[in-house]
Write a structure and sequence with these properties.
Length: 218
């Protein structure tokens, strides 16, 4: 059984081609000029253009992913965040940061840099693992270990963890106004019932991700 960073080799074949349609539906249209941070293979291009994206830019660390993304996006930078975020301030209307900040040593500074890239009235949308999820702490209580995985909430390459309030505070500290916090729909009927009975409170422990939308006021 692989342990440590050897787990990365067991990532699914679709790791770079995930489409974030449910998240993108939460965005305000039209999207205008879009920066997709960690764009992977550019699989979200069609969904973004359908929501009014007029220009798609991406930045991607994986060289193979970045090469594939050039077939779908208008411009793609093969590079790291934040070092290669070389666009001028206020040049994007929408910035997507899905499943990225938890991999970075200083996500707070990156959030500020992304906020600077937004034009007035622009929107930043991030998804970030929920450190309050039982998927994280229950194995620790039961088994005394974190039980790292190749991907997902216990991705072995995660270096930062956030609760919902932490994510909100990070974007507010970047000078943005948080307008909504969402999560994926409950994965089963049982969870949907539990969510309804607790008016959504139980999802603090059941959802594995928060989707946080913030805007840059004029």
């Amino acid at each position: 059984m692989p342990i440590g960073l050897d787990l990365v080799r067991r990532r699914g074949a679709d790791y770079g081609s995930l489409v974030h349609e449910q998240k993108i539906r939460l965005l305000r249209s039209p999207l205008g000029r879009v920066l997709d941070v960690g764009c992977a293979e550019g699989a979200n291009a069609d969904v973004l253009r359908a929501r009014g994206a007029t220009h798609l830019a991406g930045i991607e660390l994986d060289e193979e992913f970045a090469a594939k993304a050039t077939q779908h996006y208008d411009e793609v930078v093969h590079g790291a965040v934040p070092d290669d975020l070389r666009w001028p301030d206020e040049c994007f209307d929408t910035v997507l940061c899905y499943d990225i900040l938890e991999h970075l040593y200083d996500p707070w500074s990156v959030a500020k840099r992304l906020a600077n890239l937004l034009a007035p009235g622009g929107q930043l949308h991030l998804s970030i693992p929920n450190a309050r999820s039982k998927e994280l702490w229950l194995p620790l209580l039961r088994e005394g270990r974190f039980r790292y995985q190749p991907e997902g909430i216990m991705d072995v390459t995660h270096v930062r963890f956030f609760g919902r309030k932490d994510a909100v505070e990070m974007l507010e500290a970047a000078g943005l106004e948080v307008v909504s916090v969402d999560h994926a729909k409950p994965e089963s009927k049982k969870r949907a019932v539990a969510s309804a009975l607790t008016r959504g409170w139980i999802m603090e422990f059941l959802t594995i991700q928060w989707y946080v939308l913030a805007v840059k006021r004029s």
